[in-house]
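Case study.
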Amino acid sequence: MTTKSALSSKLALYLVTDNRFVPEGKSLKDVVESAIRGGVTAVQYREKEASTRKMIEEAGELRNLCRSCEVLFLVNDRVDVALAVEADGVHLGQDDMPLHLARKILGSGAIIGITVHNDLERRAAEQNGADYVSFAPVFATSTKPDHQTPLGISGLEQLVRAATVPSVAIGGINLDNVEEVYKTGVDGVCVVSAIMGATDPELAAQAFLERYNRARAHH
Amino acid sequence: MTTKSALSSKLALYLVTDNRFVPEGKSLKDVVESAIRGGVTAVQYREKEASTRKMIEEAGELRNLCRSCEVLFLVNDRVDVALAVEADGVHLGQDDMPLHLARKILGSGAIIGITVHNDLERRAAEQNGADYVSFAPVFATSTKPDHQTPLGISGLEQLVRAATVPSVAIGGINLDNVEEVYKTGVDGVCVVSAIMGATDPELAAQAFLERYNRARAHH
Ligand code: NI
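After joint prediction, the assembly is written out as follows.
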């Protein structure tokens, strides 16, 4: 179990999985393993289609991988899957289990993050005991086309400044724009396609981490 | 929490919900309420499409309804939803969470049922601590067209005779065939469309219960 004090640094480069980006002939585990070699600090298992049995199998594999590499491992939405594989916690959306119920079920030791789209949702998340918040979406994205209006860099900056818990940013983040995202002071970035869909996920993760270090060195 | 000793009688007429059968202008709760007035003894909330938030809302309503009527209330597949609404337990399929993990998470007091298609699956379920088994499918059904070969009455009879825990039967059961199903000695029947899709779910449930009593009186 990752201690909460170390959470902000554990969120620096946060991979969100999506089986649709796994190339033929490779498994989700292969891609995540490669991304971890490249320096990913946290992994969120996100799966909406598979059976619960299949989710537990896949998440269990990633869980073991992350444990041995000291990478934070969270499950998107599914508190049952998180419990079954003994994940470090869950990441909730606004349509997922209410935060207070997830906390009641998972206990105080679990890490619970939540996606927020504005300052109202940020405050509610913090009041309900979120360990971190995920600001979404920074940019327009094809992964979640039904999303709300992008925050943009200045919108993100305002939310980051107001946050009283560690924060990450998600939505359309790639190698070209990640440095300005890090410069908002956000603790980490969530990446889906720019690593999952990269020809070499290890190199992609390394490149993100270089930009993280550059942005941090600059301040 | 329903005591396990009373389980077999609580399974007599077991409604499995399906939002696709809810008529326009009515809610799932309306239909279930009507079915309970007609004598349904157990309700299983089954929902595969909605968000977790929506599932918890709907299941929470049914949970309260069932509690006040002393009707058993289980959640299909989703251990997280069952925990969130404090259901009596879960009903698992072969593609859902493995039974031993569900037991570990829900504890010994929870009622855990599992769908089985043959004697091998029945024995595994009993060895893993299932509180009841659900034999499926008795007849061919349009609700689950991807199902296995129907057991038929004689196949069901063999499984019921071998079972060491309470059992129910599911799949294509309607008012015309339910009496012969009950006569196999099975503790209960699961009904989806024949009650959910009835013009008057209360009357439909009453008619099922009459056949239950007739079959029991007969032996
Ligand atoms: Ni600067």
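Observations recorded in class. The mean pLDDT of chain A is 95. The radius of gyration of chain A is 16 Å. We will return to this complex in the next lecture.
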